[in-house]
Structures are given as structure tokens and as C-alpha cells.
Write a structure and sequence with these properties.
The chain has 19 helices and 12 strands. With 513 residues, it is α+β, with helices and mostly antiparallel strands. It has 2 domains: 2-294, 2-methylcitrate dehydratase PrpD (Orthogonal Bundle); 304-440, 2-methylcitrate dehydratase PrpD (60s Ribosomal Protein L30, Chain: A).
């Protein structure tokens, strides 16, 4: 890997294009390095994973609405498929990216990568696949495009923290999606460079979408990024340019939104540039794109930082004979877990039994209480209003607090894979003064966990989530096609769609489209 220092430059510096991060990212996208076998295998796993959670959510209201909007943009020639519908129904690819991206994201149940910021790199798949279908590309083209999307997304997340500036994580996603589309289509570096810059310019949004009363926009945001990415590439293929340099300019994202803000001098005249650098890792020319192997999927339908704590709750419940005898529960965990899904967020909604599902899956207090009581987790039942409102659950839930522990924050940000951790240490204090204490660093499904996910587990997850929703024939057909991804010929990527039986899909309320 090569490390690239990125900071703000004044316009008069005339920063060379070759020295700009977006140009270097475009260089990675246009490097024709082969996709290695273990990377290709993991890409297949994640396509299976996305299809699993998309079909499981296909009749949830936000997904129904997104699909209804997409169907208002039908396109027979040069169209892309929609999850749940037969491959003969196609829409414009940016709208397929929107609808399918929403279906993938709705349950908060697909892959994750955590470092300086948060990400769900599987969100790269819907727009890149949609463009591949629309433009008649092959399975090999798709593999190359997805390897790029994952690589650039994950490396931006390693280096640049958006959360501290209350910027939503799609600002890293959208440029990666645009770059992945560029690789898929074999575009020139100049076109990919402009596409990355347009994608970033249009996708800076704010973290209120994941704060307070969390709404369906949490699922829509990555899908919106995918739609923006498709549109950005389309414009740049036609010869249009973008704001530049988008990362390093004096009025850029880094300058005014992130840590390189400009400021006036003591007399309010000259602009002073704070010496803030981000160091972004990127593969060297000819170096394989392997970042996807550092990401991990979810066994449980909840925010990733709760995965290890759910597994820990299952283990600890064996030591608690009477839940009513609990005085309080303290979860010692990382800064991010405490402040994003813990009591450090200071969101009263995280303690409200009438909160939305989107809010509940960002409340580790609720999640830990239910996991401790039930010893199981279900993507629907664990969030049902009746379940959330159960009196004994509410009592237990409100006895739980989180505390930031420096050692867990350090492990969360560790660059050593042997110490990297996203869990915590839990103290259950009983009314008689005794305590039950245990800790878990990584979820069981994590590559270093007790039961790491491999192809078998991805297939099991697919069959579990789609059981009763699609036919056995369709399940078997999709699994056979996706596992033969590299051999899918040009123009045949529609086989990666999964169709429901006729009449099984709910229809959206009417809108404008």
C-alpha cells in the first residue's frame, strides 16, 4: 500500500491534478490488476448476503415506497432489475440502485467495516450491479468493479473520520461507488476522476439521519448515494467536469466540513490554513485490491457495534437465574459505541419502548436487554412493538448504562488485527451485591470469532431469510448462478436478481412518479 497525505491547499498553489486524492483514487480504479481468487470468493459471499437481506425486507414500507418510485422510471432497453420482480421488469439503473440499495440497507443486516469512521461497504453492490446490467457487462467486469468499490470505500474509512464532524458516512460511499462503476465500464482515468469529485460534492449530508428519532432515511441514505453515483458517472461520461480539487481545495469538503477548516487571521484579512493532514492508504500500481477481506458481515440484524454484545448477552444469561434480581448493568465499551448507540448519545428515544425500529437497532441498552432475556435475536420479532413494550423488558432496559473505557476505544482503533475489537466488558450487578462480569472483543461471526462466517454460513443466512418468501427452485437457481459469477457472460447479469412469486409484492402508495 502507498500512503497519501491529504490537506487543504490555497487556490493560488495550483495543486497539480496528479497530486490530488481523487486523481489517485481514479488511478486505482483504472488499474487493470486481476481480482484474486479469495477476493472474488468474498465478493460472491457479499452478493449472496445482500440478496438475503433485500428479500427479507422486500415488503417493508420504505422498500415498497422505493420500489414504487423506481417503477415510475421503467426502461425496457438498458434497464436494470429490481429485487422481488421478475427479470423482465427493468427500470433506469439509477432508480434500480435506489430501490435495491434501500432493500439491502433496511434491516441493518449486511456487511460492515469500522475504523476512523463507519461503513457498510456492501452498499457499493446495488449501483455497480445495476449499471452492469444496464450496460450489458459480464460477471468478470462486475467482480473488478466491486473490488474497486470496496477498496476505495474501506480505505477512505480507514483514514478520514466523518462522524466527528457530524457528517453521514455516505460521503465516503458515493465516491467509491462512482469509482467502482468506472472500473466496471473500463472508463478513462479523467472520467473517473471527475465522477469521484461530482459524487463527493453531491453526497455530503449530516448524521442527524442516525440521531434522535431515526427514520426510514437511515435505509434511504446509502441508496441515495448509489443513485447520485450513477448520475455523476453518466454526466462525466458525456464530458462534464466537477468541482476540483474536491478534497484539497480552499473551499473544499476538507476545508469547511472536516478537519482542515480555513480561518481568518487576527485582523480578519488573510486566510490561514490549519496544518491538518489525512493519510489515505491506496494500493500501489499493480497491487491487488484486497480490502474487502478486512470487512465482516452480521449474524444479527442490528448495528454492528452490538454484534459482540449480543453474543455476550447470550453467554451471560446462563449465569443470571432471575432477571428481576438485577440492580443495574454497566457496559464498558469504546467511545463510538458509547456515543453512537449507548447512553453517551443522550438520546431519550433510545430508552423509549415506542421508538421506531431504526432507533431501537441503534440502542445497545434495548438490544442487550432483549438478548439477555431471550437468548436469541430475530430481525423482525426482536423489534416488534409488543416485544419492545413488554413491562419486564422496559424495567431491565432502563437499568442499563454504557461507559467509555479507554482500553476498548484503543482496541476499536487498533491497526493490529489481533487486538482490534468492537465489543466490551459487561458488569451485571445483582440486588444482593454479587456481580457477573464477562467480556467479548469480536462477534462470533467475525473472522476472528468463535464461528467465523464462510460460504456455508452465507448460504444458510440466505435460505433462512428467504424461506417462505421465494420458491426453492428460485433459491437454488440464484445460488448456482452467483457462485459461478466469473463465468456469467456479457449481458446476462440479470441472473443475479431474485424474484418473488407473482402477487407476493406489496404495492406502494401513489406519489409523483
Amino acid at each position: 500500500m502507498q500512503m497519501h497525505d491529504v490537506k487543504v491547499h490555497p487556490s493560488k498553489a495550483l495543486l497539480k491534478r496528479e497530486d490530488q486524492l481523487a486523481w489517485k483514487m481514479a488511478g486505482v480504479a483504472t488499474d487493470k490488476v486481476a481480482v484474486q481468487k479469495d477476493v472474488a470468493d468474498m465478493i460472491i459471499n457479499r452478493i449472496i448476503d445482500n440478496a438475503s437481506v433485500a428479500i427479507a425486507s422486500v415488503n417493508r414500507r420504505p422498500v415498497v415506497s422505493a420500489r414504487g418510485m423506481a417503477l415510475g422510471h421503467a426502461k425496457k432497453a438498458g434497464g436494470a432489475t429490481l429485487f422481488g420482480l421478475a427479470a423482465g421488469t427493468t427500470v433506469s439503473p439509477e432508480w434500480a440502485a435506489w430501490a435495491n440499495g434501500t432493500a439491502v440497507r433496511e434491516l441493518d443486516y449486511h456487511d460492515t467495516f469500522l475504523a476512523a469512521d463507519y461503513s457498510h461497504p456492501g452498499d457499493n453492490i446495488p449501483p455497480i450491479l445495476a449499471v452492469g446490467q444496464a450496460m450489458g457487462r459480464s460477471g468478470k467486469d462486475l467482480l473488478r468493479g466491486l473490488a474497486t468499490g470496496y477498496e476505495l470505500h474501506i480505505n477512505l474509512v480507514r483514514a478520514i473520520c466523518l462522524h466527528e464532524h457530524k457528517v453521514d458516512h455516505i460521503a465516503h460511499l458515493c465516491p467509491a461507488q462512482a469509482a467502482g462503476i468506472g472500473t466496471l465500464l473500463g472508463l478513462k482515468q479523467e472520467v473517473v476522476f471527475q465522477s469521484i469529485q461530482q459524487a463527493l460534492q453531491t453526497s455530503v449530508t449530516f448524521r442527524q439521519s442516525r440521531k434522535g428519532e431515526i427514520s426510514s432515511w437511515k435505509a434511504y441514505a446509502p441508496a441515495h448515494a448509489g443513485k447520485l453515483a450513477v448520475e455523476a458517472v453518466d454526466r462525466c461520461m458525456r464530458g462534464e467536469g466537477a468541482p476540483s480539487p474536491i478534497y484539497e481545495g480552499e473551499d473544499s469538503v476538507i476545508a469547511w466540513v472536516l478537519s482542515g477548516r480555513t480561518q481568518a487571521d487576527s485582523k480578519g484579512r488573510n486566510t490561514v490554513y490549519e496544518p491538518v493532514y489525512y493519510t489515505v492508504p491506496l494500493p500501489a500500481p499493480g497491487e491487488a485490491k484486497r480490502a474487502i477481506l478486512d470487512s465482516y458481515t452480521k449474524e444479527h440484524s442490528a448495528e454492528y457495534q452490538s454484534q459482540a454484545l449480543i453474543d455476550l448477552a447470550f453467554r451471560m444469561r446462563e449465569q443470571v437465574a432471575d432477571m428481576e434480581a438485577i440492580e443495574r448493568i454497566i457496559i464498558h465499551t469504546s467511545h463510538h459505541t458509547h456515543y453512537v448507540i449507548g447512553t453517551g448519545a443522550n438520546d431519550p428515544q433510545k430508552m423509549d419502548p415506542k421508538a421506531s425500529r431504526e432507533t431501537l437497532d441503534h440502542s445497545i441498552m434495548y438490544i442487550f436487554a432483549v438478548a439477555l432475556q431471550d437468548g436469541a435475536w430475530h430481525h423482525v420479532d426482536s423489534y416488534a412493538p409488543k416485544r419492545a413494550g413488554r413491562a419486564d423488558t422496559v424495567r431491565l432496559w432502563r437499568k442499563i448504562e454504557t461507559r467509555e473505557a479507554p482500553e476498548w476505544t484503543e482496541r476499536y482503533h487498533s491497526r493490529d488485527p489481533d487486538t482490534l475489537a468492537f465489543g466490551g466488558r459487561v458488569e451485571i450487578v445483582m440486588k444482593d451485591g454479587t456481580t457477573v462480569v464477562d467480556e467479548l472483543g469480536v462477534a462470533n461471526a467475525h473472522p476472528r470469532g468463535a464461528r467465523p462466517f464462510a460460504r456455508e454460513q452465507y448460504i444458510q443466512k440466505f435460505r433462512m431469510l428467504t424461506d417462505g418468501l421465494i420458491t426453492a427452485r428460485e433459491a437454488n437457481r440464484f445460488l448456482a448462478d452467483v457462485q459461478d459469477l466469473a463465468r456469467i457472460p456479457a449481458g446476462e447479469l440479470a441472473v443475479l436478481n431474485v424474484a418473488m412469486p407473482r402477487g407476493a409484492l406489496e404495492e406502494s402508495k401513489p406519489g409523483i412518479f
